[in-house]
């Protein structure tokens, strides 16, 4: 192989519970995957085809700190379960989808809601609202042999000790196997791809100094401080 002409960018990773790290290739995020959240964002909760956007792998951040980003005054928390894939392919069958899962983790889809709102209004892409620096706080991944496949269980987010978001993983409109199968019809999935599986209702703003605590049944709790 010929030599790189600039320093090699670092591979983005998520730490693994018990040691090691998971290299991240792509980050897919599903929109409006809990009915109550679709309603709070002003949309019909009916089961329309799912839609996805992407964050960048190096937007993920396991430091436990979220720096309040620039050019916004309305940053929202969205607690989400993250699904990490150990393999992929195209046109993955529903009944085969879970065989591609390496494990699960807790994550936040931090959103510059004001900027996202402007982009929506103008029919523009969402990157400026969604795919900014350190916009994806994550906790350590757990292997599926420890967790089983997480298709039910409480998901909640507290800010400064007060519950702001709560729901159950079984309330997802599109289940994990359906997301994998659907994505694989439009993209070639591969080892290292992760999917943020949507947020329950109760999204809202945070400010510097806030402490966000994420609890997803079956996973370790994750604390992220806004700095
Ligand atoms: Mn989200």
What is the spatial order of strands in the main beta sheet?
Answer: 4-3-15-8-9-12
CATH first level = Alpha Beta
Order of helices and strands: EEEHEEEEEEEHHEEHEEHEEEE
CATH topology: Fumarylacetoacetate hydrolase, domain 2
How many discrete structural domains? 1
Q: CATH architecture, please?
A: Alpha-Beta Complex
**Overall outline:** globular
Report on the structure:
Strand 17 (211-216) and strand 18 (222-226) form a beta hairpin. The strands form five sheets. Strands 4-3-15-8-9-12 form a six-stranded mixed beta sheet. The protein has a five-stranded mixed beta sheet with strand order 6-18-17-13-14, with no helix packed on it. Strands 10-7-16 form a three-stranded antiparallel beta sheet. The protein has helices at 35-40, 113-121, 127-130, 144-147, 176-186, and strands spanning 13-15, 21-23, 26-30, 52-55, 60-61, 65-66, 75-77, 79-85, 101-108, 111-112, 136-137, 142-143, 154-159, 162-168, 193-196, 204-205, 211-216, 222-226. It has 227 residues and is an alpha+beta fold. The protein has a single domain (13-226), classed as Alpha-Beta Complex (Fumarylacetoacetate hydrolase, domain 2), CATH 3.90.850.
Layout of SSEs?
Elements: E1 13-15, E2 21-23, E3 26-30, H1 35-40, E4 52-55, E5 60-61, E6 65-66, E7 75-77, E8 79-85, E9 101-108, E10 111-112, H2 113-121, H3 127-130, E11 136-137, E12 142-143, H4 144-147, E13 154-159, E14 162-168, H5 176-186, E15 193-196, E16 204-205, E17 211-216, E18 222-226
Parallel strand pairs: 3-15, 5-11, 6-18
Antiparallel strand pairs: 1-2, 3-4, 7-10, 7-16, 8-9, 8-15, 9-12, 13-14, 13-17, 17-18
The protein binds manganese (II) ion.
